[in-house]
Fold these 4 entries.
Entry 1:
Amino acid sequence: MNVQLLQTLLEQLPPSLKKEWSLRNGQTVYGKVEKLFPNDMALVQIGGRSLVAELKAPVTSGEHYWFQVVATGENIQLKMIERSFNANQPLDETKLIEQLRLPNSKHVRELLKFLIKESLPIVKEDVLKAAEWLKTADLKTGLQAIRWMYTNNLPFTNDVFQAMIAFQNEKPFHEQLNQLQSSLAKAIANMPEKEGALFQLHSFLRDWPSVSDFSPSELAKMFKKMIQWLGLQHEAKSEPLTDETKEQLKSLLIKALQECPEQETKKEMANVLHRLTAQQLFSHDQGPIQQIFTQFPLLLGKHWTDVTIQWRGKKEKNGKLDTDYCRILFYLTLETLKETVIDVQIQQRIVQISIVNDTPNLQQAISSFQPLLKKNLADHHYTLSSIKVIPTAKKQNERLAPIEPSSYKGVDYRV
């Protein structure tokens, strides 16, 4: 899968689905006072986000300051540490290094330049941690990981950073699992006891199902089964395997990591585990709005591919999911059509489908199947509005049109 395309589509979230980063007590942040209000209140811009806060110090509108966060919640309180540069003086990493008394290293400089460019919050504690993490990763990949951590309001920990790194792995997930299976086969070949989590994990990967294992009427069941096998509901902590968790990839990986004597194989397992964690981190609720993200390998005939599904929608008050309003994106690499993204938007049971693909004359080929698709959707009380093919380059340069949150009634995740 084209990681750049996947990144582009992942980031085009409607405003209602974006998770804002949150301030934490004790943080030191850099901000600009945009407007003053009575009773020591002010509109302050921090990392591209404007918020109303109580300032216990005289400040000037238009000026930049260093603040310490002393209270969060409904009433944010900021304590001014010192005035910084005036509004007409550009902010650069050199000034920040001096202001924050940071080490003048390559990774600190590159990180600060990136945070300034992306209008992300500049927090001294986070800068020190992230600069250390960047030493272990490709710089571009590491900076992208940090951006996702901020924009998705994820915990600022090394484990989450590693998950964001793993998510950007260019190697397809099915190749990664196949390589792990081969490594496990070598690791267990000379082990006297043919039992334990390493053997269970090897057997689990060896018996990964294909589409041919399911009838057409069971495809929805297959997708749900795949999600269960990945173990994405399993908490990432060490615990004994039970009948309920032993057939889940994540629980087997956690257990096998403790038993594996081979460092290289342990590294491969850790990378797969981080990749699964990334899926969990990109799946989240924000109030009634949900985003579900999952990726799994699938054998289509003799061709292995990764099926990636990103679903966005809203639940009703009773917890049920309404099929009338949702958006589902499918990413996969097909044997003939190669890299393909299918963008399905449903509003009031009216379906619009966009297929992102560079195959010549694909629109004409799809048109011949459109009547059958229209009929099958109508049998389930949906109306096909349109189906069109969009070249990859065009899709990467345009924003995905958001689904208006006001029109939501709830959503069902049905594949």
Entry 2:
Amino acid sequence: MSKFTDEDDALLGELGVEVEPVKHTARSPKEERIIAGFEDIQRFVEEKGRVPQHGEERDIFERLYAVRLDRLRELSDCRALLEPLDHQGLLDANEAPLAPVDDLDDDALLAELGVDSAGDDDVTNLRFVRSGAEKKAAEEIANRDKCEDFERFEPLFDTVQHDLDVGTRVTRPFVKDAGFLKADITQGQFFILSGQVAYVAEVGETIKAPNGETDARLRVVYSNGTESNLLLRSLQRALYKDEGGRRITEPNAGPLFADTNEDDDLASGTIYVLRSKSDEPYVAQHRELLHKIGVTGGDVQHRIANANLDATFLLADVEVVATYRLFNINRSKLENLIHQVFAPARMDLTISDRFGNPVVPREWFLVPLFVIDEAVERIKDGTITDYTYDPTSASLVRAD
């Protein structure tokens, strides 16, 4: 339908102006999605003042737009469809595409163009090979969508940022298999992944993974307004691999080791540091430096009650010189970790038990008490795995 009336047409005719009816061309859903994908690129250019670029350091969306623009420039059907809309001259840019178009992958290409691969018209007869960076971009973007109800979560991110600014929350490294950090991910937790704050909004039902581990589907919302639906183990692996991956503590969570615990804390035991009262010459000579370091889930006094009968206690009474309460920690892993750090200073001494059998105690170390205190502090802040003990300087040094 013309927007002019017959009288308008007559008047324009007298003025020498030709009037052509407005043409409405029906587009297929696939063409609409190609146009929508191109409009995303146009909006990026309007906001940033430049065309999207490739590169690992770029934002995920920018990397995807760069891949998409390369493809649109190469496909004659797409160019013909989009050229009337290309008021920024994006399709005629002189930049050569950074990814080769040799081998073909229909579904992946159409997904990057915003097109469903269902159907068999000629726009699907395409094949190409993506670079590693582009594959990574496509994989990441496939797991992140716009969070339609982000207004529900935005105040949470604002609160977390405020808490971090004032110090009521802190970030700690997400360390794999360290023993003292819980790797479990639960609903309501915050993490930092790829520079974005990630909030675990929902945790689905527990499922059994092929390797026998338990897993669950998560809804994770990010501070940039996107969200992903991924497996718990996938998020763990991503945090482990990300050098900047961190977990954000709860407000006023306090230290890992404390004299008191909250009702919902899981009391796991105590690190104890002992000195021997043995008269054995070597022990007596190094008494102030020689310490037994262990972890127990029970009462320390009960643990040392029969020390004089136990070769691991050097068949002598001991005194407790330090204890550290711990919560939510795997005791055996933590003890192994501590012994590994101080292994260079392990006492080399063989004694005979009550029955004359040779015993080599493994939990005694020639380490000053102040260094043990420092090690506990590094366990608290999650950096202990970066250190080992140097007997020469009697200090913790960064491991190679």
Entry 3:
Amino acid sequence: MKKLVLTVSLVSLLAHGAFAKDVHVTVVHMQQNPGELKLMDEMARTYEASHPGVKIDIRKFGDDYKTTLATSLQSNDPPSIIYSWGGGVLTDQVKAGLLRSVDGKISAETKAAAGTVGVDAFTRDGKLYGIAQNVSQVVFWYNKDLFKKSGVDPASMASWDGFLAGVAKLKEAGITPLAMGSKDKWPAAFFWDYLAIRLAGRSGMEAARDGKNGGFAGPEFVKAGEEFLRLSKLAPYQKGFEAAGYPSASGTFGDGKAAMILMGDWNYQESKTNSSSGKGLSDEQLGFFTFPAVASQKGTERDTLGGINGWIFSKAAPDEAIDFMAWYQKPENISQFAKAGYYIPINPKAADSLANPFLKQIAQNISASPYHAIFFDQSLGLSAGGAVNDVSAALTSEAISAKQAAQDVEDAMALDR
């Protein structure tokens, strides 16, 4: 999914017989799309040109982002600007004293551009810790050619039972229904997340967080696992899915070797980047639909799963780091990422620059959503979020019962309450 970090540290350099203080900004990330990386680098050079003494370097962070970040934040040289999904992980970081509040350092204009939802997403105990940048939604991307070949009508998948019937029909036609990256775990979690959101609804999710009605071991969450197992029992995933990470699964879909992938809007670009050709599916071959309605659900099919992502600052971050990120978020800068279709900016002025029809529709879906749930591995915090990822990967392999999966999440959540 989108994963990016900026770090800033101060060093002294000997120049012309005197010490000159420079600010070195290191961009550390997991983003793979060459076009976006090129644009990021261009932004860095532009900022440097108007800010003498500030140097920005771009390099890749480790693939295990969360573990690497947790270790780095507690080191003697922590990153200064951190790409964040907010949620419970942000709460944990604030509680641990690892972050710097940016109250009084962020202009009213910058906060207004993020909107109330964006500001709230990065506020804890009345203090602002970051700047929201982009929003995302997880959807079913599908290959129109493979659907046509199998005789499956996407409209028939508006219900979960219809979806499962479509999966079975795709298999009968000799087509792999779903690309899955179980090795990375979080791609599998989108299924459990969405099923829980549909079945429990917003009120049920909030009650579970508080430990009410059995918490995450309650009946709706057990049912989510049961429905997930109904899917896995159809053996819908590509060969070797348990050892495949997201890049591999995304490439499988981009190569036309699977009919669908449940993934965020970023997959539009990533499936091309990770395909064998580097081009992936054409827009004419590509479509998407939202997660189906589930029988007896307490939520609605308009409820969405995704993120409100942005930037937070470590306790070691200097003022220059905050200034750089505020500049980076200006609509004239962020709109360039929107035009290229790399993500959906939370800033409405920048989002108006979206040219990609798929991303435009997803932006409208999020805007119309009565409940936009944040990825569980972020919103529930490190312990419970990690448990969701673990049990979801196990459910793809039918290696755990629905009841045990729900209990494992509840046990982990209980540690953080």
Entry 4:
Amino acid sequence: MTQAAQTYAYLRPSAVHRTAEGGTLSLQTSGGATPAGQEAHPTFFHGFLTSPQVAAAGLLCVADVAAARYHQPLRPAWLDPVVTGNGDRLRFESFSGCCGVYARLDLLGDALDGDDIGHGTTNVDVNIPLRQALTRVGPTDPLLLEVGPDELAVTTFDGPVVEKKVPLPDRWLRGLAETQVIASGFDLRAELSAAEAASFLRSLPRAGASRGVSRAARWVVPAGRSLRATARPVPGAVCLPGPERLAVLTRVLRHATGLRLHGPTVTAGSSPVASAWEVGLPGMRLTLTLSPDASRGFSGEGSVLDALVAEESAEDAELVSVLLAWDPVVDIADLAAQSGLTPRRVRSALTRLGTAGRIGYDVAEAAYFHRELPYDTGRAERHNPRLRAAHALVEAGAVRLDGELATVTLDDHVHRVRSADGRLTCTCRWWAEYRGGRGPCKHALAVRIVRRAASHRTTDAAQNTTATSTGAT
């Protein structure tokens, strides 16, 4: 597994500082992007939290996910959460070390009372003493929130006071990109009151409590004001894969104002799918997005691959990236009007930008949002194994087109790829196992690349013929 070291450099550790008047939650920032460019320690907010105990519990949930591996839990994981300032809110995001759970806490305007909220993205230091301090925040404790250093006087010639180096696997980056594409296909499926949400979530098994129980995916369907469990998918159902992964939400249950469930359209024959669980909090939202299986991370879902093989999406992404403005909601129609692209091409461009961590998706508002993660642009694309394998097949001349049928031959392996209703099917084992449920196989990707190249050659030839005829006339 390919990975690189990500370095977080902070001026001091994040901490809760107590005074006679109350406390200050000082979250220290590492290098990040802002509208003014890269900054070593950006500052996004200085003001009071209107519900400090709720915010503290929500931040602990995000930190819990960042430190967790729900699959192979004995292997430690610790990746500092990311914070994005979008002018009207702060978003705290994390991704589990196993790549199977994405968490986001949105502190909306009603949760914040203070200075203007800045724009940009950076990592924030979350350490064990900070976690312990957050658990002690009471319901009436005044709490000042600082996102970024209050002053830079502690900078020394020796460099940052705190520096962390953590491995950043390529599958982690791919998983983060896949999550926003998959979530963009979700719709609201069910809504529970605070009491029903607490009752349902408390009934779920905890980690380690489900030994000997079937590991098959669970499903739930709306039933009156609550949810009913079902062993099989039915229209309107929401998949609950690895229900123990929702245990982290118990930290905020007593503060919850409700629970909303989001998921894709399913039928009676559907395989397990991802889902999003959104807990409403006073002035805030906490959302967990679960992969289709606790042992299956988002990194192999393949939702971004079609956009990555589209030749025009790279140029489109470059154009769209210039138009992004740290808005809390990315307006696709507005981007299409400004760029001159179709909405479909704008979405494809956003998908490509998502592979560099520059785009997220908010299921609560059914909208993309802009962020800038401090990771190598294009790395997730370069190291995607299926995409690399598809390009290798093309370079080896393994693809032969014959109308709607294509043959992919490499050594003594021959696979047939057929186009039907805009969808490619293949005779390989990957297709037989997943039936397109985890994106296209490498053979279908290679055929798409060759077909697009052939289409461009035909178009160029036609344009040249027209130009020649016009010149002769």
